[in-house]
């Protein structure tokens, strides 16, 4: 497959899939899948367990959970509530997997991305809908919340470098040093390889956000190395990389050639190319002006709006309302 | 050229260009170009004079002015003011060309598009920055404005069908019937074929906005037929149709084949395809999921922000401050 | 009471209350109250039945329902859902009271107010959260909605005169003539007399929106007279008129004088003033710069945000999801 | 004057004025005024030179410049440019007064306030319109800017405590520690005592932002003590404290009593009250529900919009375009 080399994806699931399609076993990478028929939610767990696996996957060692639910962007309050509850459960799993299990924790939610660009506004929107509690717990104590245990939730929208003149990691690191949270949850819009992932996918990873991810291309990662505390990354694909289209066109073209009478031969020659050769070819075909461009659906506003509510609600369930039940 | 058949553009200039590149004279279509070296502004006038020309161009009979200025999205207040003044001049030209030259006119500006989707928010943003005057002139008379003559400027952001449940033309027609403007200026975000047009192009046409135009695909046009009064359309390309990428990839691919040793033959065969054959091929290659998607640059927020100010300022110069000078 | 004459309120309930406090029976005005203890929702029905009652109340003949629920602005999804359901029930009641009971109706929701001024943004926000259906029913028929009956919901945010140069009624009348809805529901932010009404009150009236109402002072009413079809007004107090403070200060001052040794006499004299005399006094005390100013709480953003969701949800329940249950 | 004790103002000028009106010399406080007739700009310099003066004024030792220009909120680009240039000059003066005069400085602009509440959105809006340069200078060097000297401008919108769960000073202190700016410029919306100050006043102070200032009441100050580097505060009154209205009503009431036949005596008694007595009286009259409320004009959106542009432009002139001229 050509796309193996050339097309960027922020989803571990998609990275794994392309090996699947080649029937290649990736050493050090384990995949588990679970489908809840009633709720129509599919959860895939990709565990990258070794540095070797990490190298092949182009993603750090850690656990990547992918929730897929059809019509995540359709307005249906009850369904969204269900997804929020599932999401809360899996975020909790990742927290516990990382033996991060103390009570009354302080969590900082970081809403990454650019509020002014619709497909990149997911992170800021999630923060807009959160119920922060750190200032109340700090001032009145946890009993003010009517709870025996109370996590402290704080949140920030750091903005993007073109607006702040600062790297996001500089801002977040400063805030971490001052306010000493135990854990960061960073929410970001992602780029998918396959446009079918849009509108239906949420990825949660205990590896944070790594460099080069997201619609606006964060230059430096947010993770335990850069921030000193665990970082759980929640990502939602809202765009497709423009190079995807080039790749898909190529693949379709080769297929078309193969089924043509006169050009069948050329198709077969191209099909026989090694991955490296195809990579070079696609690189050549990608017009330079495609850099810095993204592909997004026309109803991106509804998608971002609905999914950001679902994620905020999951975080509110997990950290604000936990003890009420 | 493949693009002749397959790729949508809202710019008359680009429609004309592809015939140029084939050295085809289009009967009934006249092109004039003027370049102001000092201001670095290029103005192209495409006049579609006959129904035959209209058919070939896929655009109605009328005059299409295209202003091209480099770095329209770079923040430089003085430069933008200059462009606004040029723009005002050309809007005025179109008004006069249409023998629409009476004094104290009433103009309704319609800001088309979806405020929530960044590349489609140009029209609403232009209206946000306008200085409307109709209500003041109506209440206090033109002398309240300190002027001998006073145009009445009104403005509306009708929203898109997914938000209103109504066709834009229904809303505008209703408002026209109630408030009786003499002229409509409709501002919309457009799709270009060539991504180099983004950030630097403004099109003004005396044919209004025709169906299927814009980022969000207006289903029915705004023009003299549908509204009963002249409509000047101001359009700014903010996205590129996803199909453009497919087409460019194809062209690059054929060139690559031609210069290859083993596949040279296939390249030559493809090159020799008739336009119709190429069209069929590209149609086949366009993945169905590309429908309803658009390609836009990552800094689309700055582009839309700067250019909408430039257009508002042009309209303010033309209709609000005209008599002050 | 001084406030009887001087202080503006858009709430029929408050208008009625001041007569109550004077033990005055207002002929032609009937008040009923109902309190649902479990849901903590109080509903008051003010029926103005005669022109005489209308004159005394300063509001047109019709039914005014007021829903009061504590903490309408506190984020609690379940509670808001309950209020939405009650609200839907009472809107339905007003529709039926007006013998407006046919099936498959077409409703136009008008979101009044200025999107850019937080306490005035309620109407536009309600429209933002609506699920419009008119275009879908028109294109695919009601069976596309999976329903036997389908109302058609459309919506518009007309903007305010300072942004459009047009009276709101001109825009809405035009849209009504073009799209022929059976019924209008107009949503607006209101001014209350008592700041305790903020955050907890929603008024529904079958008399539409009358002139001079709202944060931004609509100059002309939206009602059956001006639009030709029934108009149900939904109003939420988000500001208090600045004059309220003057009045409250006066009242408190007179009380303070009465309980003072040296100034007791003056207090008694003031207390004995006729309503007319007090009115003149308060008018004198209102500093002219207070005109055009309003008083609003610092957390107005949360209030407007929460309540607008509750109202949208009520309208979605009533007109979109009705047949699904 | 009653207002001496009871009414909050964030403007040093207003604090000084009330002593003026009592013909009281405040030791340690110097006032200079300058009026530019042509530009219609009045500049007042209040210098609090001693701790004693600071105590009386309720504001820290330092220099407070107030620029007053009529119609700051009227859209007139040329006039705003003029004010921006003046403003730049006076910000520069304060920088130099503080012997802060090195070249190639790094400035962090902090946009205080709540983006969601119109009169509090001034700070965030100013940051939205800034041209930040720190990341460019850091990556490409100052020659990339085409300049011999290049300041590095960075900016942040920290949000308010109800949205972040953190004190603003915590966030800013963290960012300062990470990015090491030489100087902070903090922009905030202020409360004035006199509503005539709205729409026409900008205050610049070399004392930063002190606790309890602004529409949303910052709980902790941003200044050299809390942040370790100089802080210049730019403040614009966008609201009037609700207590102002109570006070004004009282004053008007006493005047009305004095000119009445029957109540003249009471008026005189009240007039003869000591300041302390009057203070107690007003405190009693202020209804408790007024806490947490503010008074703002209906066209607050235009005011905030225009003035935020003027301030951004001043900062762009000073730190971005300085070397181009």
Automatic annotation (TrEMBL), chains A, B, C, D:
It comes from the Bacteria. GO terms for biological process: proteolysis; spore germination. The keyword Protease applies. Signal peptide: none annotated. It is an enzyme of class 3 (hydrolase). InterPro entries: Pept_HybD-like_dom_sf, Peptidase_A25. Autoproteolytically processed. The inactive tetrameric zymogen termed p46 autoprocesses to a smaller form termed p41, which is active only during spore germination. One of its GO terms (molecular function) is metalloendopeptidase activity. Pfam families: Peptidase_A25 (PF03418). Residues 1-10 form a propeptide. Its EC number is 3.4.24.78. It catalyses: Endopeptidase action with P4 Glu or Asp, P1 preferably Glu > Asp, P1' hydrophobic and P2' Ala. Keywords: Hydrolase, Protease, Zymogen. NCBIfam families: GPR (TIGR01441). Initiates the rapid degradation of small, acid-soluble proteins during spore germination. Belongs to the peptidase A25 family. Homotetramer. This is Germination protease. The gene is gpr.
């Amino acid at each position: 497959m050509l796309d193996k080399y050339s097309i960027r994806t922020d989803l571990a699931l998609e990275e794994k899939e392309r090996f699947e399609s080649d029937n290649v076993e990736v050493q050090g990478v384990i995949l588990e899948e679970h489908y809840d028929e009633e709720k129509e939610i599919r959860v895939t767990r990709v565990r990258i367990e070794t540095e070797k696996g990490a190298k092949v996957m182009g993603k750090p060692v850690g656990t990547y959970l992918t929730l897929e639910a059809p019509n995540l962007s359709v307005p249906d309050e009850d369904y969204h509530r269900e997804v929020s509850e599932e999401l809360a459960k899996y975020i909790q799993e990742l927290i516990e997997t990382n033996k991060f299990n103390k009570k009354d924790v302080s969590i900082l939610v970081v809403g990454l991305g650019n509020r002014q660009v619709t497909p990149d506004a997911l992170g800021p929107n999630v923060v807009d809908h959160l119920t922060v509690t750190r200032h109340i717990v700090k001032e009145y104590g946890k009993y003010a919340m009517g709870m025996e245990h109370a996590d402290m939730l704080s949140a920030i929208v750091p903005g993007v470098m073109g607006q702040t003149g600062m790297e996001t990691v500089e801002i977040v690191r400063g805030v971490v040093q001052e306010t000493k949270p135990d854990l960061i949850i960073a929410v970001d819009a992602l780029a998918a390889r396959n446009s079918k992932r849009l509108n239906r996918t949420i990825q949660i990873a205990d590896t944070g956000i790594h460099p080069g991810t997201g619609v606006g291309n964060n230059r430096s990662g947010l993770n335990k190395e850069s921030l000193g505390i665990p970082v759980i990354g929640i990502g939602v694909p809202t765009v497709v990389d423009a190079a995807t289209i080039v790749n898909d066109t190529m693949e379709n073209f080769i297929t078309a050639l193969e089924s043509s009478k006169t050009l069948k031969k050329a198709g077969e020659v191209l099909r026989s190319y090694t991955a490296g050769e195809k990579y070079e070819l696609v690189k050549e075909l990608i017009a330079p002006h495609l850099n810095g461009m993204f592909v997004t659906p026309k109803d991106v506003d509804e998608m971002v709006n609905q999914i950001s509510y679902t994620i905020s609600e999951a975080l509110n369930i997990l950290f604000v309302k936990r003890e009420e039940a």
